[in-house]
Design goal:
This protein has 17 helices and 17 strands. The longest helix is centred in the last third of the chain and has 27 residues, at 312-338. α6 (174-182) links the parallel β8 (167-171) and β9 (188-190). The two termini are 39 Å apart. α8 crosses α11 and α10 (263-272) runs antiparallel to α11. It has helices at residues 18-29, 39-44, 74-84, 105-128, 132-143, 174-182, 199-207, 218-230, 250-258, 263-272, 276-291, 295-304, 312-338, 343-351, 375-381, 398-406, 432-435, and strands at residues 4-12, 52-58, 61-70, 89-90, 93-104, 149-151, 156-158, 167-171, 188-190, 209-214, 235-238, 261-262, 356-360, 366-371, 389-396, 411-417, 428-431. The protein folds into four domains: 4-106, LOR/SDH bifunctional enzyme, conserved domain (Alpha-Beta Plaits), CATH 3.30.70.2690; 150-291, Dna Topoisomerase Vi A Subunit, Chain: A, domain 2; 308-333; 343-435, Cytidine Deaminase, domain 2 (3-Layer(aba) Sandwich), CATH 3.40.140. Helix content is 45%, strand content 22%.
Length: 436
């Protein structure tokens, strides 16, 4: 079933046909955000429906409406909507596409169901004369959406029992918290749309057990990696593939949480499948676990503190040992980051939202700034070892990694990392979050 309908208006400074507009949309968005958001591939997979265009002409111009059905999640649908606005020409004529609305088809269906329920109740009351007020009150109470509280300085959406519970369920957004509250799960808190893990959640992770419960899509994969890089996570639960936590039924939520996997086991399975990033994440989690003792252990330490004291020399030896272990786990990941000049952070900030890339020499002098969609073609025309690093506002794809490897590029820094099956050993891949 279609989740959303993207509606946009189009204006072309010339007379064109419907198929010209559709062709321009496919042609000018191809490869813009990588293979993951290629419209043809999304149509083949059933994630994007048939594009409909209705047009009329007047005064030598063509105007009309574009409708695109989407089965993607909200974030991905919004990205597709923004992407089609980048179309600037249809044939030889200048054109402008502007998204005017994104309709949630499911909400429209719910509205029709509610209206039909009211009609049925009115008919029923005339035939059987039940207590109509009582029925309406019962429906209102059943449909009433529980409201989450605001927790911490960031006012994060949360259930009322976050502070009282020893275990906290960490989800992505406010709608996920509401859905869990609907089924009586009150020890939950949301990231609240933050790009980095909020300080409030970092503090909770130091004194409580954390279960990360995330959407079963690629967006959930990216958020999980960011969480594992930042805080201690005890278990990981995922919604079924392609589903979001906010749309799960009570049975699906219970089943997903019952199948939550200990973080160490989850990462070890990825390592066995060949994931090098999972190896680093496991090292981070082990370090965070050493720094953050479980709730039960913390309580025991408080009671023993009055009678057991470490000698100064023992404390120093233990501290030195921890520092050495910490250095071993971190040096491999950060040694290349340390060599990146400070001005690159400013370059990254200037790239945000531009869909552009900057190519650098080995001494970090900019070679050129180009659109991300032209990146592979420009690399193809350059000699080996000309480009040392690439910083770009886009997704690191398998195709780009292969091309960069062929041209002996040392460092790729992108907004996000897509699905990478094979990576040359001498290429380092980072994201903006690693540096900002």
């Amino acid at each position: 079933m279609t989740k959303y309908l993207i509606k946009a208006k189009v204006e072309v400074n010339g007379v064109v046909e419907k198929h010209d507009i559709i062709g321009a949309i496919f042609g000018q968005t191809e490869g813009l955000l990588g293979e993951q958001f290629d419209l043809r591939a999304l149509q083949d997979k059933g994630r994007i429906g048939r594009i409909q265009v209705n047009t009329r002409t007047y005064n030598g111009k063509t105007v009309g409406e574009i409708i695109i059905p989407s089965n993607l999640d909200r974030i991905e649908t919004a990205l597709i909507a923004a992407m089609i606005e980048s179309v600037e020409r249809v044939g030889p004529y200048n054109a402008k596409i502007q998204v005017v609305d994104i309709i949630d088809v499911r909400m429209e269906k719910i509205k029709r169901i509610v209206e039909r329920a009211k009609e049925i109740l009115r008919t029923w009351s005339r035939t059987k004369s039940p207590d109509l007020k009582e029925i309406l009150l019962e429906i209102q109470q059943a449909m009433k959406t529980p409201e989450p509280i605001k927790y911490g300085p960031e006012n994060l959406p949360a259930g009322p029992d976050v502070e009282r519970s020893d275990t906290v369920i960490l989800v992505e957004g406010r709608a996920d918290v509401i859905n869990l509250l609907r089924y009586g799960i009150t020890n939950t808190i949301a990231l609240g749309g933050a790009r980095k893990v909020p300080e409030t959640i970092a503090n909770l992770a130091k004194r409580k057990k954390i279960i990360a419960f995330l959407d079963g899509d690629h967006g959930g994969d990216l958020i999980l990696k960011e969480i594992l890089r930042s805080i201690k996570v005890d278990k990981i639960a995922r919604a079924p593939p392609g589903k979001e936590v906010e749309e799960l039924t009570g049975r699906e939520i219970k089943e997903a949480l019952s199948k939550a996997i200990p973080t160490k086991k989850f990462l070890e399975e990825l390592i066995a499948a060949g994931s090098k990033e999972a190896q680093y994440l496991l090292q981070v989690q082990e370090r965070l676990s050493r720094q953050t003792p479980p709730v039960q252990q913390a309580k025991k330490q408080v009671t023993k503190a009055a009678v057991v004291e470490e000698k100064p020399k023992e404390k120093e030896e233990k501290k030195e040992k921890v520092e050495k272990e910490k250095a071993k786990t971190e040096v491999k990941h950060v040694e290349e980051v340390i060599s990146i000049p400070k001005q690159i952070k400013n370059d990254i900030k200037s790239l945000l939202g531009t869909l552009e890339a900057i190519l650098y020499t080995k001494d970090w002098k900019p070679i050129k700034r180009i659109p991300v969609r032209d990146l592979v073609n420009v690399l193809d025309e350059m000699d080996e070892r000309t480009v040392y690093a690439i910083v770009f506002d886009g997704i690191v794809t398998q195709r780009l990694v292969e091309k960069a490897g062929a041209k002996k590029v040392k460092l790729l820094i992108g907004a996000k990392i897509g699905k990478i099956n094979e990576k040359p050993q001498d290429i380092i891949i980072l994201t903006f979050n690693d540096l900002l």
